[in-house]
Structure formats: structure tokens, C-alpha cells
């Protein structure tokens, strides 16, 4: 009976060790990227500090502009503009490769680092301009 208890203990430890192994995800988050995100803040890094402000693209009195990433790799950018808050939707595609997000609209592409992805926030930093954009769900 003592041997069975020892074997059971070793078996439990081996399952725990396997479940804690590194999955080689290179820092990738397991939160799904797909969803609709409202534009919240924009900014950049100044003297090593992140400086974010409320997104000036959001028209006062209108719903917030948004980015929708669909399961079919379609990206939809929603822009509310003008006195009547007219919605303009622009459709393109997106691709995620590890922590890079590439959004292509027409012939223009932008590649961003995914800085943070949670159930409530998507924070990206454009690799060319360094502009940080924060979206919330």
C-alpha cells in the first residue's frame, strides 16, 4: 500500500510538472484578439515614460471610433465624424503573428506590436511611428 501511495505521489508531481511547462508562445497572450474595440487613448513614449491622452479622433458628442477584428481576419475601422456623427466604416484585413498585428486597408499596411491584450484592453504600438493606441472593449 505504501508503494502505491509513493507511485501516486510521483505521478501527481509529474502531471504538475508537465502542466507548468513553457509552451514557447514567446510572450503571447492567450486572450482572443477578435472583438470590437472602442478607441480610448493615444500617445507615445517621452523620456522613457508612456504619455497617453484621450483620443482626439473621437468627436465630442459622438460614439467612440472603433476597431473590429473579426474571426475571418477582416478588420473594420469605424469613424464617427461631423455634427451629425455620421459613421464611416472602412474594411480591410488583419494578420497576427506572435505579438505583431498587421492591418491592411487598400494598399496601405501598418505593423504594430501588441503591448497589452486583455479581456478589456488592446494596446498597440506602431512599429514605424511609435504611436501607441489604446482600445477598450
UniProtKB/TrEMBL annotation:
Against InterPro entries, the record matches this protein to: Lipocalin-like
Asked if the Swiss-Prot or TrEMBL record annotates the protein with the keyword Signal, the reply is yes
Keyword annotations for this protein, in alphabetical order, are:
Signal
Q: Where is the Lipocalin-like domain?
A: 33-124
- Highest taxon of the lineage: Bacteria
Q: Residues of the signal sequence? A: 1-19
Does the keyword field hold Signal? yes
Q: What is this protein called?
A: Lipocalin family protein
Organism whose genome encodes this protein: Flavobacterium endoglycinae
